[in-house]
Amino acid sequence: MNRFLRFGAYVLHPLLMPLLGVVLYYIFTPRYVDVELLSAKVFAVAIVTVLIPIIIFFLLKNVGIINSIHLETTKERKIPLMIQCILLLLIIKLVFDPYDSPELYYFFVGILFSAIAALLMVILKVKVSLHQIGIAGVTMFLIVLSIHFKINVLLWISLFFFFNGWVASSRLHTESHNYLELIIGLFIGLVPQIVMVNFWL
Fold first, then answer.
1. 197 touches 107 (CB < 8 A)
2. Tell me, what's the pLDDT at 60?
3. In 53-174, at which residue ranges do the beta strands (DSSP E only) sit?
4. 31, 105, 138, 156, 158 from 161: Cα distances, Å
5. What's the mean per-residue pLDDT of the chain?
């Protein structure tokens, strides 16, 4: 059980959540999307949200700004979150268009607001769960996609509710967060996606 709970924190890492949201969109969208365009978009998101942050992590670790990938203190989280906000802006400006891909465009706008909220919490010395923010945001995005496209994805939604519980249990088990930090993270992940729905649903 210990290994299972710890594994949840890695397989559902917040860095992977934006890419997961994009993949889910392309799986469920009934719209025709050119395969080359789809591949280019997914590749771009993978580079900007996963590869670049990993490279930046090693750079920050080498200069002593952060100690581990877990970002255990609020001080360690400040610069990575600032960089994450900049990278999300790049995706919003260069990868997705509000007219051609409104769902994904506003999905990333919602993620940006979640990242800004997490950064504000860090400034206030509150260590919210980035894992919970990430999985909660993707879960809400999936729910709204099912409504938008009128498709039945209850099994997938149920699976993501399980993922939310898995992540929360993992963070509590490792004593990385307390209940309040998880609840705040849940709302920071959900609320921006709910607000952004008004622009594209």
1. no
2. 87
3. none
4. 26, 24, 10, 9, 5
5. 91
Task: Determine phi and psi for 124, rounding to 5 degrees.
Answer: -85, 10
pLDDT of residue 77: 87
DSSP state of 174: T
Residues 6 or more apart whose Cβ sits within 8 Å of residue 10: none
Burial of 122 (0-12, 13-18, 19+ CB in 10 A): buried
Residue 188, CB half-sphere, CA atoms under 13 Å: how many?
27
d(CA 144, CA 53): 28
Domain ranges of the chain: 2-200
CB 48 within 8 A of CB 86: no
Q: Two tokens at 21?
A: 């949201």
pLDDT digits (tens, 9 = 90+) for 26-45: 999 988 888 999 999 999 99
- Count of alpha carbons within 13 Å of 116, Cβ hemisphere only? 11
Q: Are 26 and 42 in contact (CB under 8 A)?
A: yes
The rounded distance, in Å, linking the Cα atoms of 76 and 130 is: 13
Strand, helix or coil for residue 116: helix
pLDDT digits (tens, 9 = 90+) for 78-123: 889 999 999 999 999 999 989 888 999 999 999 999 999 999 999 9
Please give the structure tokens belonging to residue 175.
Answer: 């004593």
